[in-house]
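Hi R.,

Here's the chain you asked about this morning:
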Amino acid sequence: MNMPCVYLAELGRDVPSKRENCRRFAAGAFVEGIGPAGGFFTLADNILPGGPREQAEYFNELQRIALEKTRLKIPLLQTEEGTHGLMCSGGTIFPEGPSLGSTFNPALLERIYAAVAAEARIVGIHQLFTLVVEPIRDPRLGRNEEAYSEDPYLCARFAEAIVRGVQGDDVSAPNKAIAGLCHYPGQSQPVSGIERGAMEISERMLREIFLPPWVAGIRKAGALGVMATYPAIDGIPAHASKKILTDILRGELNFQGLVLGEGGGIGTLVYERVAADQKQAGQIALRAGLDVGISFESGYMRDLIDSVREGRVSMADIDRAVRRILRQKFRLGLFERPYVDPARAVDGVPRAAHRALALEAAREGIVLLKNQGNLLPLRKNLASIAVIGPNAAHERNLLGDYVSRTILQEVVTILEGIRAKVSPSTRVSYVKGCNVIGSGLDEIGKAREAARAADVAIVVVGENERRAPDGTNGEGKDLASLDLTGMQEELVRAVHATGTPTVVVLVNGRPLAVRWIAEHVPAIVEAWLPGEQGGHAVADVLFGDVNPSGRLPVTVPRHSGQLPVYYNYRPSKAYWMSRSHYVDMPATPLFEFGHGLSYTTFAYANLHISPKQIRPAGEVEVSVDVTNTGPREGAEAVQLYLDDVISSVSTPVKELKGFEKVWLKPGESRTMRFRLAPEHLSLLNEHLEPVVEPGLFEVMVGSSSEKIHLRGSFEVVP
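And the predicted structure, written out as tokens:
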């Protein structure tokens, strides 16, 4: 029941001691009174920096210990982070979180996570966790860079795609793994936007907003892994909640896999003061339905043995957890095939194809936020370009959170991507300008001079990596303000003041409130965290080799004081926004959910809704013609929103209920078809029961939550 994270100090202070202690724990000789480990978490990232061969050989060594030197000869279960790539040396680093969300392309995500699973399984890793399917509801939370969207429907479609990619039809296959969805049932709306803070949400919000991705990923797609979340929900820590971990998860969602704790998750019961100590916390967590501890927490180690002896924990509860762990190992075929082939670990993965996939994903995830006067795309034969900013030449800041400590492959910076793209005659100058945070570097004067001497200035700003001493982005890196940190806005203002045409590129894991930039700078490119090929992808968009097709999966606020700012708000907000606003700024967002520009244009026509009347159990087909009316090929993310006009409970003014990305050549048209079934039309009534109520439903089809091009309606009749 213990599969510890190898970064923990209990396993040693350096790599050699950790390697030896993992061997001892695999043999059951490390912790007095505790038998062999069930497996390990984040082992390869922490102690195997040499790459796939080293990983495969060491994992084989541990399996050999488990199978030859322990009494029961049970193979080990190895788990690693797979947030946006296998988090160990040699793993392809794909774009993270909102970047993948911006693709509006579940099929692409399925291909990405299939690649991640293949890279994992071939070295001996069986479970991929921190696949963060929960909606982003408070962007101040640093960990939201791991998630995809604020919208539960979009997250649900991504959850299904991720599970299909990772697990496939046969999880025992040599290129498949367990999909560990996180963090159940959510942690992205904590009090004050602070990591691990309690989620003070209603049962209605839990079921309407947070549960849909889990319904999709577990009940529909069959995910076999879940990590319990840190926060207390409605006063009960998730690790202590039988309602959450058993009644809803296994009862309502029919979950058949393993529930892992968060790192230190059992301790949440202690600091939330529902348990006096680790011993009591372990008892409560086990009864609630927690199967596996991933930290050296005594509540699931020697204290748990004492709890059994004292009659405070039943052997039936222990057996239940162990049975689930064994079943997972049988599903994976580990008893029949515990070892991997080290040679195949090196040669059996199409690394070049995965790099190409990372580039494709980065390209699709880039959102063109503003392009005044068609400044973009830039000509490749410009005489001179000034590339400025703290993120222009920084590799790690492009990668985001949950990335290997040791990176073996090349990471392409934005500066390198630009230099590789332009003509040999183009002079590209570079000035860092300032740091992401703090005032320790002031090269604003140098940046101003470089911009004055250039035809175009490209300023690359945003956030930096969590592991930096002053990191602003990632787990535990929460912000009170969403404004640019440090001197970055001052840098942009100085460059813009030169009169040189200016493009701002944002590298960030959460939406940033860049009000001044949005009002003054003619072109803004949201690159998010574009991964190892991010520099090439950004250059492809800047110079027009790729027509941007990303669409915002989150709402970008003007100011953090607007939060929450998600698009699917209740009618009362719409009512009062139409009559008043903040004293100091508009109440509308800076950029709305679904927004994104293209180098071409699209027209919508011929909205058809059939039938116009249905019974509550009926279905409606919506079709619309979309035409590329511009000069070049491009992709449009067609979005369908629904409004239940009059209902027994207050429902959002609009909700995404369908989307599809379509590539069209100039002049080409395509008929897009959407099916609306009872699951799209239902609401939770006053008793929190899902029902489809009679009444009028408005259909809105457009290119964003605000850019609605066509409207129609249908009626549900008794």
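The two ends are 52 Å apart (CA to CA).

Let me know if you need anything else.
M.
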